[in-house]
Give the backbone structure.
Amino acid sequence: MKRKTPQHIIVIGAGIVGAALAYHLASKGAKVTVVEAGGIACGVTGTSFAWLNASCAGIDPIAALRGGAIAAWRRLETQVPGLAVRWHGALSYGTQDGRVSPSCMVIERPRIAQLEPRLKQPPEQALYEAEQGAIDAVAATHALLAAAQALGATVRTHTPVRGFAVLEAKVAGVETAAGVIEADTVVLAAGTGTAALAAQLGASLPIHASPAIFLRYQAPPGLVRGIISSHAMEVRQAEDGTMLAAEDYVDDAPENQPAAMAQRTAIAIRSELEGADAIAPEFSCVGLRPMPADGVPVIGCLPQVEGAYVCAMHPGVVLAGIVGQLASGEIVDGQPASALEACRPARFLA
């Protein structure tokens, strides 16, 4: 049953998930205000490897959601000015993590060498997924928010949410240092800050901060054509030559700090790629990803308070486009999305 369209929707969080939500909500004619405690894409969005893929290891409870992720980004490319995705494919080998997607294929060494001619020792075989790509997550967030603003949305950065106005078990707005911003619906899309916001509304959501290492290097252009994920390195290159790499977080020992990891990964890259001797670490950090306890995104209404909707997930960059599309349909049109059924917050709040 179609319900009344919310008059004013506040999206808390100006990362890529919040930006995609704002764009899709504004596209449906909603009045949207994005409220962000810091700057645009200042959280994990700014430290994301941003590999767009639909692969998963083992049984996938969100297969339907993940399956629509690539198509959603392709649609957004045609709709949002300045949004560009590099659909250059990805090679995976030697990782033994079991990640597969329905459209991946096994290719042999001659084809691998054609795809990535700078590999010093191409493997005998690799998994290749031509439909996978990567995105500049920060630039994409700015593009989505600009498109939302062109549709009438407002973006308020450096505006922390201090609390919520709730009347008769219904959200009436958010409290900021400048006063209350009234709203009919509030969407919590604040990454690792989402659980604390939900707690203020009486909902205890087990979403923890999952660390990962993000690395950036100065490098000659053309070393890597697509994405390479192997036992030695996980790397891709931007058009200007900037090389991005991702590593698992180990612990907080000195030898596993981001700067030390950047040096070790640089050695691995130089050993794997011809012409990589000149690469130099430019930036390294720990990014904190919002990780629900069961690994499944938390998306949907909070049952305790009317007008409160949650969007917290990993991988956020991959799923932002499809989640923005489906969640906006639920919020504005009142149309439940079957692909989101496994994601409901109620599973933690019974």
Notes: The CA atoms of residues 79 and 284 lie 33 Å apart. The longest helix spans residues 316-333. The first strand starts at residue 8 and ends at 12. Residues 8-68+137-206+293-349 form a domain with the FAD/NAD(P)-binding domain fold (CATH 3.50.50.60).
